[in-house]
Each structure stands twice: as structure tokens, then as C-alpha cells.
Amino acid sequence: MKMQLKPSTCLAPLPAVIVTCGDETENNAITLAWVGTVNSEPPIVTAAVRYSRHSLGLIERTGEFTVNLVDTPLMRAMDICGVTSGRDTDKFAAAGITRGKGVKVKCPHIEESPLSLECKVIKRVDLPTHAVFFGEVLDVLAREDSVKNGRPVIEGLIAYTNGLYRAAGEQIGSYGFTAKRPEK
Ligand SMILES: Cc1cc2nc3c(=O)[nH]c(=O)nc-3n(C[C@H](O)[C@H](O)[C@H](O)COP(=O)(O)O)c2cc1C
To answer: Cα–Cα distance between 33 and 149 in angstroms, integer?
Structure first.
């Protein structure tokens, strides 16, 4: 028989990302693991932000944010953006990351990130601890080495599980492998 534990989300590993927000006047970078994919056409992602975060006001004010995927070389920056606040720290300087000029949004992206998803907030849902922003992805800005045949290459991300950072990597299967006919 299984043991019954207190309710918790338990959904892990999650890809930790750095969300950039704000505009030319004031901008910031916040590490988030509670991000999700919720719609294909148009592409929509969610970002769950605690009410205490400085970034929340910036996202609310501009109605935009950019999701920057994080690979291993960005792990240190990701941690810094997750333990310091934009209230008293220039996280771009502290983390050694470069502001890229937004293309479809006013907020900057991170030049060093493999893929940056520029998003427009289309909906906000206020839950007891987190505000959930639904962002329509307006475009994807890719580092040169993160594109293959015109498509984004998603690899080398960091899997966040219960306070630990792990490399998300080894391929162990492929979509629909159970439906494929065995090779003769
Ligand atoms: C790996 C990691 C994941 C995090 N995930 C979230 C998250 O999903 N939502 C959230 O509100 N805070 C999350 N945080 C905490 C914020 O990044 C942190 O409180 C940050 O200092 C807030 O910055 P700000 O005050 O400049 O907005 C996470 C931190 C780390 C290190």
C-alpha cells in the first residue's frame, strides 16, 4: 500500500529559466522554475511569480516578459538572479549577463541565453501565493549555435528538482516510439 503524504506539487524536474522584464527605464531578471507550456497556436507559456517579487510589478506595468532558457554555462547567473532582488541589485552586472535589445517587446533579453521567448501578457490569474502570467510568444530569439535547419535546438538545459540543479540531457526515447512498427 502507498503512504499518503501532505499535498504538494511534486512536478519535477522543471527547466529553470531566467525571465527578463521591464523596459529601457527599469529592467530586471528573475529566475523561475514554475514556468509552463499551455497552448500551441498561438504558442502560450505561463510564469508563476510570488507576490513578494520585485519583478511582478515590472511585468504587470509593461505587460511583457521574456523567457530566457538557461544552459550549463549560465547556471551561475541563474542562481544569482534567483537569490538577489532587483530592488537593490543590478542583476545583469552581478551575474555577468548582457542585455540584448528586445525586438517585439520593450524588455531586454539575455544575449548569452540559447533561446529567448519574447512574450506579451494576455492574461493574469491570481492564485493564493503566486500570480500566473500567461504570455503569448511573439518570437524566439536564438543564439547562432541554437538553431539547426531553421529550428530551435533545445538541449543542455538545467533541471531543477527539490533545490538541486541537474543536467537535463541523455536521450532515452523518442515521441511515439510505442506506436512505431518494429523494423523488419
Ligand atoms: C532555481 C530557482 C527557481 C525559482 N523559481 C521561482 C518561481 O518559479 N517563482 C518565483 O516567484 N520565484 C522563484 N524563485 C525565486 C526568485 O528567483 C527570487 O526570489 C528572486 O530573488 C526574485 O527577484 P526579484 O525580487 O528581483 O523579482 C526561484 C529561485 C531559484 C534559485
So the answer is: 29
